[in-house]
Amino acid sequence: MAGIYLHIPYCKVKCHYCDFHFSTQTDSVQQMVRAMHSELNDRVSYLENKTVKTIYFGGGTPSFLDNALLKGLLDQVRQLFCVDENAEVTLECNPDDITADRLKAFRDMGINRFSMGVQSFDEEVLRFMNRAHTQKEIWHAVELAKKADFENITVDLIYGIPGKDEHYWQQQLMHFLELDVPHLSAYCLTIEPRTYFGSLQKKGTLQASPDEKSLAEFQYLMDFAAKHGYEHYEISNFAKPGFISRHNSAYWLGETYLGIGPSAHSYNGSTRSWNVSNNAGYIRGVEAQAGYHETEVLTIENRCNDYLLTRLRTKWGIALSDLSFIGEERLQKLSGAVERYCNKGLLEAKNGIFVLTQKGMYRADGIAADLFI
Asked: In this structure, are 97 and 237 located in the same domain?
């Protein structure tokens, strides 16, 4: 199988925590979409005729685009690629962009999954993060989506908010439960240098939440999700049965995907490529048919380390038998390192598959890095 990701690099406002590639300057939207159409044509062979089973509009804020532009991109994907008739088609959206008319248009063009950037149900925190929507718009958007017969809805929440106690996070999860949607993505607030929060931290006027507090909130999240029937299938993701994200799971399981748009990444098992993270530079490069993306041929070490980094985050874990290509000597060394983490209670074996324990999830990236060959 294969997936296609389309990066829409525009937002109404700049959230104070976000370091993804986007712009609030929107005068280049038409040129950008034309460039993305051109890139689709230019890279049609990348997926090697594999069936496309997932399409994902990310950003930025894809719901910022008008219906005709979204539909045009989807139509071209279907014209150029072999798209499964039951493909999962996800649109990231903000609650304030959702209306009954737009939902009908989304349904008609084949979108069947929504990822809503909720982040918080608290008005004070929404303003703190410079989100464009209100709490009322969250409830209204989900209600409208359900009335339009959209079942596959996920929301994002952020924990580790400075100055908020444990009761805040507990309340957020109760509000999520009241939404009655089948998927949750929850991320700890990370203060990145090139963000507004990063500048405040540099000035000494904002400090990240203590690690102990964030870990306690993560533990509460895991317990809460399990109690209410949400499977913890990836460190930041929880789903009711039948609602695991097929697109993101394909990333973690090493499936082929093509990324379209500025800053988008692509992967086919033997190479990976990434587009320039600059709107004007991307448009110029596509128009010139050169210079808008770089490609790296993956070494044995790259392939192994990618596998460890991504699979270790998931319920599917790592199987040493999948890594026979690294050679017997390296495999034995890796096996010894895995065993040491099992002895520390950070990994556990389940039918020959090694997965993180709850304790290990707190240290996932560090464990993966230590296992790298």
From this structure: yes
